[in-house]
Structures are given as structure tokens and as C-alpha cells.
Specification:
The structure holds 2 protein chains of 2 kinds.
Chain A: E1 2-8, H1 13-22, E2 29-35, E3 42-46, E4 49-53, E5 56-65, H2 70-81, E6 89-95, H3 108-112
Antiparallel strand pairs in A: 1-5, 1-6, 2-5, 3-4
Helix pairs in contact in A: 1-2
Chain B: H1 7-34, H2 40-50, H3 53-67, H4 99-117, H5 127-149, H6 154-158, H7 166-184, H8 200-219, H9 227-255, H10 260-274, H11 283-305, H12 315-333, H13 336-339, H14 351-381, H15 388-393, H16 395-400, E1 411-413
Chain lengths: 117, 431
């Protein structure tokens, strides 16, 4: 099992969600974060005060997947989140020791396999 | 006409001018709340900017073209640069008030009408192209139509009834917004992604302030402190109330809930519908007009959202459809015993309805062509549309370099070039 953490542009989130849905990746969390990864800072001016805004709004996906889902998940995010400009984000694939599904107590691969109805 | 200043008239018209002026910032709130949260400043500034750019060209040439006698199509330049626009009374259109006050009162109409158009293009129009548009539209499109109806032009001579601007303001702005939306093009991802209002409390606040200001818009259109003003004033109470009830019942029937967007929209549509009729119809017909008049705009908003046309804030459905409905219903419900001018269908003058329809079609046609030509001309000089990337980052950030709610995280102060001045001493440093 792996934990995939992806930081993407907010305006690509709908595309990423759609791509993940097509790749049959169902369980995920996302949160709004502030980040900086090398894109040019924006300049804002309020009367005499000028600032460089070095943190940009990003969205962080966290997706727990079984091993054979890693490649399709990464590909889906990569294709949907890419604009080609600096600031498209990163994807991290992290090892996971243990996963539990709280409702049933299922563990590991069973716990990250979506419930089929 | 005698040229004596009447103190009551002058006081009411200065008050009305201030009331109508407030409608433009109110529209900024109304539209700003409906735009997405990354475009709220941009959308509000689209309204606020007309208070400068549109107002100045209006004072320089627009007023003269609209309201000087001239011909059937447009006035002349006798009052350009405000020459001869003095403190004396006696102008035919405002015989008992100072000429300057009449000019200022009409300026507030020109400004709000131009600001209304911005609702069609929020979230993607480059601000500098927009500034060019609002500076020129008021002269090229608004002034001739105002002249046709109010300034002695062909529609006024034909007997078209438009008390406070159903045709001149609302049909005109609604059609222009539709044309502008089509010329500038849809927002990035329109039709794939939901565009939701960012701040509904602002929408309600804007609607409330618009209603307040509208007492000057309609009541002031009597251009005197008379019974006609009183009638317009009271009808401005009644029609939006009836529209609110009708809209709420429609919302209840369709989705089972009364909505904030619905209540705010109903107030504005009720105001739009009664605008041309406000000084012409008895109060009980104003209630009927408000309720009946809500329906076409309600249906038009449902329809527009299902089309591929990104006329973003439904200026067409609210103002062109509402304004046309109001103009036609004015021809139905006008009663000479109340207005001293002309009767409509219910009081035995069916021909008035035909005149009203002709006025709506004439104004709509000119507005569409004029707006199209102007936008194409501006577009040939500078791009109208912000890039997809700029739209994605948000128009507040990319057009204005500001955010509505700054967190300050990651904001690094840019200090001015190092100067020879010594650093400030802390207080009491001399001790």
C-alpha cells in the first residue's frame, strides 16, 4: 500500500477529480494549503504598501491505494493537473505501514479497496 | 414654460440624484456577491469605475448629445464641455430646477446603465478594455437612446411611455450585456464547471440598497416634487413586494425552498418592471405588474442557465426581459386619470401597446448593433479577454493586484530603494 500525496493548482482540481474517477480511484481526501515551489511571486499594492506574495494557494490530495493502483493514480493526476507552467505541483508516493477501515476493522489492502455495492 | 426655480423641486431633485448615485455601488455589491470569490473586487470595480470614467465622458459630451434638442436621432453639441449648463431654471426638460442639477441627475442614470452591462462579462474581461468600453459606450450607445425617448427624439415624439427608463436603461443594458457576453466569450471552463456566487449576503445587501436608491430613480423621474413623483415613489414600494411574493411562490413550487438569490433577484426584477410604468399606472396595477412581471424574467433565467451562453449574471433575463415586460405592461395599465399624460389598453387605448413594443425593439436593435461595433473596435486595439491562466488565478489578483481578504501569509514587504535617511530612532532614544 502507498499513500499518494499530490499538491496541485486549485483550478485543476475538478479535472483531477474527473481523471481519478475515470481511473476508478474512489477514496480520497483533499485540503486547501498554501505553498511555494518556485513560481514567480505575485506583487500586490495597497496604497503605499507593496508586497510580494510568495505563497500560492494549492490543493493537497491524499489518496491511500493498493500497490497496483499506484501507477494509474499517478498518471491520472499528472495528466489532469499539468498546464506546463511553473507551479503545477508535485506528487509524492509514500510507504504505508498499516491501514484500517474504521467502520469494519478491515486492514491493509482490504481497507483501501472501495466498497462495492 | 416658466423659468422660476421651485425650492421643493430643487430639493427633491438633488436628493434623488444622491439616491440614484448610491445605486451604482449597490450594483457593485449585488454583482460582486454573485461573482466567484476570486473575482469579487474586479466585479465591484466594474461598477465603481463607471462613477469616474462614464461620468466624465457624460459630463463632457454625453449629456449634450442626449438632452440638447438636436434632431430625431441625436442631440447636438451645444452643451458639450458643460457650456451653458448653468444654475438657472427654465430648460424644457426640467423647468423648475437648476440646469446643472438636471445634468447631474441624468448623469447618475447614464452611470448605472453602463455599470449594468458589466454583469454580462464578469470573470474574464480585461480591465483596461473594460475601461475603454464604459468610457465610450455611454456616448455611442446610451446617449442616442436616451435622446430618442426623453431628449425629443423619434420615440418620444411617437408617444412611447417610459417614465424612468425601462427601455432606455434596462432593455438597453440587458441587450448590451448579452452582446458583450457573446463578443468577449465564455469564461474558461463554462459549462464544465459550476460558477457559484461567492457572497450571498452582499447580493442581499446590494438588492436592498438598489431598492432604496430606486426611490430617487423613479420618484426623481418626475423632475419635480409633484403628485407624479408621489405616484412613482409609492409604486416603487409596491411592485418589488409583489414580485418578491410571486418569485418566492415560483421557487417554492419548483424546488420547494425560498432562496436568497431568488429574493434578491425578485426585488431587482420588480423594480425593473415598474420603472417605465412608475408614474403612469395606479398603485393597484403596480402590484399586478410586479407579480406578473416577475414571471418572464424567472423563466428567462431558467432558460439561460441551460444554454451555452455565459451571460454570467443574467442581465439580459433580469433587465432586458424585465424592462421589455414593464414597457409593454405600461402600455396596458397606464391610466390618464392618474398620470395626466396617456391611457393604455385597460383604459381604452390599445394602440399604446404597439407604440411600447416598437420602442423596445428600436432600442434593443440599436443597443445590439452599437455595442457590437464598439466592442469589435476596442478588440481590434487591445484584447478583450483575459487569458485562461489569468482567469484561473482570479481577476482580483491578475487585473488589480489585490485580494479582498488578505491573510498576509507569505507577503513580503517590498521596501523602497535604500535612501540616505538614517533609520528612525526609537522613542526616548536620546536618553
Amino acid at each position: 500500500m502507498k499513500l499518494i500525496v499530490a499538491i496541485v493548482r486549485p483550478d485543476r482540481v475538478n479535472d483531477v477529480l474527473e481523471a481519478l474517477y475515470r481511473a476508478q480511484v474512489r477514496g480520497l481526501s483533499l485540503s486547501r494549503v498554501q505553498g511555494h515551489g518556485g513560481e514567480l511571486e505575485r506583487v500586490e499594492t495597497y496604497r503605499g504598501t507593496t508586497v510580494k506574495v510568495e505563497l500560492t494557494e494549492k490543493v493537497r490530495f491524499e489518496i491511500g491505494v493498493s500497490d497496483h493502483f499506484v501507477a494509474p493514480t499517478v498518471r491520472a493526476i499528472m495528466e489532469a493537473a499539468r498546464t506546463g507552467e511553473v507551479g503545477d505541483g508535485k506528487i509524492f508516493v509514500l510507504p504505508v505501514d498499516k491501514v484500517y477501515r474504521i467502520r469494519t476493522g478491515e486492514e491493509d489492502t482490504a481497507a483501501v479497496t472501495p466498497v462495492s455495492r | 414654460m416658466t423659468g422660476h426655480l421651485n425650492a421643493a423641486d430643487l430639493a427633491w431633485m438633488m436628493t434623488s440624484t444622491a439616491l440614484v448615485l448610491l445605486m451604482t455601488p449597490a450594483l457593485g455589491l449585488f454583482y460582486g456577491g454573485m461573482a466567484g470569490s476570486k473575482h469579487i473586487l474586479n466585479t465591484m470595480l466594474m461598477s465603481f469605475a463607471t462613477l469616474g470614467f462614464t461620468l466624465v465622458t457624460w459630463a463632457l459630451v454625453g449629456y449634450s448629445l442626449a438632452f440638447s434638442p438636436g434632431g430625431a436621432l441625436v442631440g447636438d453639441l451645444r452643451w458639450a464641455l458643460l457650456r451653458g449648463v448653468d444654475l438657472a431654471a427654465g430648460q424644457p426638460l426640467g423647468p423648475t430646477i437648476s440646469h446643472v442639477v438636471y445634468m447631474a441627475f441624468q448623469a447618475t442614470f447614464a452611470v448605472i446603465t453602463t455599470a449594468l452591462v458589466s454583469g454580462g462579462v464578469v470573470g474574464r474581461m480585461r480591465f483596461r478594455a473594460y475601461l475603454a468600453f464604459i468610457t465610450l459606450w455611454v456616448v455611442g450607445v446610451y446617449a442616442p437612446i436616451a435622446h430618442w425617448v426623453w431628449g425629443g427624439g423619434w420615440l418620444g415624439r411617437l408617444g412611447a411611455l417610459d417614465f424612468a427608463g425601462g427601455t432606455v436603461v434596462h432593455v438597453n443594458a440587458g441587450v448590451a450585456a448579452m452582446v458583450a457576453a457573446l463578443v468577449v466569450g465564455n469564461r474558461k471552463d463554462y459549462g464544465r464547471q459550476a460558477f457559484l456566487p461567492g457572497n450571498l449576503p452582499f447580493v442581499l445587501l446590494g438588492a436592498a440598497l438598489l431598492w432604496f436608491g430606486w426611490f430617487g430613480f423613479n420618484g426623481g423621474s418626475a423632475v419635480a416634487s409633484t403628485a407624479s413623483a408621489a405616484l412613482a415613489f409609492v409604486n416603487t414600494f409596491l411592485a418589488p413586494g409583489a414580485a418578491l411574493v410571486a418569485w418566492a411562490l415560483l421557487d417554492l413550487a419548483r424546488i420547494g425552498k425560498v432562496t436568497a438569490m431568488g429574493v434578491a433577484s425578485a426585488i431587482v426584477v420588480g423594480l425593473v418592471v415598474i420603472t417605465p410604468a412608475s408614474g403612469f399606472v395606479p398603485p393597484v396595477w403596480a402590484l399586478v405588474m410586479g407579480a406578473l412581471g416577475a414571471l418572464p424574467s424567472y423563466v428567462a433565467m431558467q432558460w439561460r442557465a441551460r444554454t451555452p451562453i455565459d451571460e454570467s449574471l443574467d442581465v439580459f433575463a433580469g433587465h432586458a426581459v424585465g424592462g421589455a415586460t414593464g414597457a409593454v405592461l405600461t402600455g396596458v395599465f397606464a391610466v390618464k386619470a392618474w398620470n395626466g399624460v396617456q391611457s393604455g389598453l385597460v383604459a381604452g387605448n390599445p394602440q399604446q401597446v404597439a407604440i411600447q413594443i416598437l420602442a423596445v425593439l428600436g432600442a434593443a436593435a440599436y443597443s445590439a448593433v452599437g455595442t457590437l461595433v464598439l466592442l469589435k473596435a476596442i478588440g481590434a486595439i487591445t484584447p478583450l479577454r483575459a487569458s485562461d491562466h489569468e482567469q484561473a488565478l482570479g481577476m482580483d489578483s491578475t487585473q488589480h493586484g489585490e485580494e479582498p481578504y488578505t491573510a498576509g501569509e507569505g507577503a513580503v514587504l517590498v521596501l523602497p530603494e535604500v535612501s540616505a535617511e538614517p533609520a528612525l530612532q526609537p522613542a526616548g532614544a536620546d536618553a
